[in-house]
Each structure stands twice: as C-alpha cells, then as structure tokens.
Specification:
Layout (H helix, E strand, L loop, with lengths): L2 E5 L3 E7 L2 E9 L3 H14 L5 E8 L4 E5 L9 H10 L5 E8 L6 H20 L1 E14 L1 H13 L3 E7 L3 E8 H15 L6 E11 L2
Antiparallel strand pairs: 1-7, 2-3, 3-6, 4-5, 4-6, 7-9, 7-10, 8-9
C-alpha cells in the first residue's frame, strides 16, 4: 500500500440532540490491542453514560469492527463505522458516548445523531494521508545547503533532521514514487556530485489529499 488515510491525533467533539448528549472521541490505532485499549479507556472515562458505541478500522488483517452497545441494532455502531469507511479512513477507532436525555430519537434520529457525532470526531482528529516513504540522507557543503533545503520540499519530500558539522547532513523522507525525480533534481543541481543514500523506509503524514 503506497498510501492510506487516517487521523493524526486523539480528539473529541460533542453536540446535543433533543437533550441527549453525544460525545465523539477518535484516536489513531495501528493494532487491535490499541483500539481495544482506547475503547476501554473511554468506557472508564464515561462510565456513567448509557451507551458507549464504537467502531474501528485497521489495515492489519483488514479488520472492521463495531458495537451498538445496547442501542437498537443497526442504529449506532454501523453508522459510526460507515462514516470511517466513507471518509476512506483506516488505523483509527471512534467511540460515540451518549448520555440519554429522556426523549426518544427514533431509528432515523439515532442513525443521524451517531453519524453526525462520528463525523465531528473525524474532523476534530484531522485527516492526514500517510505515504510510504524512503528514508534518505544527503551530505553536502554549506554552499549547497540552502538550495537543497528548498529543493527537497519542492520535490515532495520532508526534511526530518539536519546536522551541521564539517559538512551538512540532511535526513529526509520522500514518497517512494517521487524518489527518482528528487534524485534527478539533486544530480542536476550538483552536476552529479551529490546523491541520496537510502537508509530505511516508513510511512509519513502529508496534508490531506
């Protein structure tokens, strides 16, 4: 997988519908253990709530799980999961907590409320695109540093770290499908004197695309 969409942070959002309080909480999670711990933590935090509905989607094992947690079947957990799927998100978990306000919302009302709460949580969590990147290092002299520091982001890369000594060592991440183009730009700029040294690989966040 060259890229995937997820949320970048733990976040919470809430609204009130006919006196029922809905609190949507979202969290990045790469493994099922992380998702289940997050759900457990939210249940402990809102232990006095009538419902703690959840859904999560993971790349590992292509897992999709949800729970209505006592709400009528199909009115809560699946609508929350559906929001994640329609947003194209993975590696994240959502819990929508409901404090019942005394007024029944009906089947359609519950679906809309849980969907809306999940969407608010997604927006609060901040959607990012995680791209499969090559981790690389380029060493240059001080006269070349300024141009390289501009060239790397121009070519779609991210500068992770810069070390200044007798020469300058730039550690960067570049999406795999853009690495050849960046190397060409570096070669052209330096007349063949500089090259990227690949040191590893990882997924890195980029602005939502």
């Amino acid at each position: 997988m060259d890229s995937y969409r997820t949320v970048c942070r733990l976040a919470e959002s809430e609204f009130v519908e006919k006196k029922s309080r809905f609190i949507g909480t979202i969290c990045p999670a790469e493994h099922e253990e992380e998702a289940l711990k997050f759900i457990s933590d939210i249940r402990k935090k809102y232990w006095d709530a009538k419902h703690n509905v959840y859904a999560y989607v993971l790349r590992q094992g292509q897992v999709r799980r949800y729970s209505d947690d006592g709400e009528p079947q199909g009115t809560a957990g699946y609508p929350v999961l559906d929001v994640l799927l329609k947003e194209g998100l993975t590696d994240c978990a959502v819990v929508v907590t409901r404090y019942f306000g005394g007024t029944l919302l009906g089947t359609g009302g519950l679906v809309r409320a849980y969907s809306h709460s999940a969407k608010l949580a997604v927006d609060a969590g901040g959607v990012v695109t995680m791209k499969y990147c090559l981790r690389s290092v380029v060493s240059c002299d001080y006269t070349q540093y300024g141009r390289l520091a501009a060239l790397i982001p121009e070519s779609g890369g991210i500068i992770k770290d810069t070390r200044f000594a007798e020469s300058v060592e730039i550690e960067l991440l570049i999406p795999e499908n853009q690495a050849e183009g960046l190397q060409h730009q570096i070669t052209e700029y330096s007349s063949g004197s500089l090259a990227m040294k690949i040191t590893g690989e990882e997924y890195a966040p980029f602005d939502n695309e």
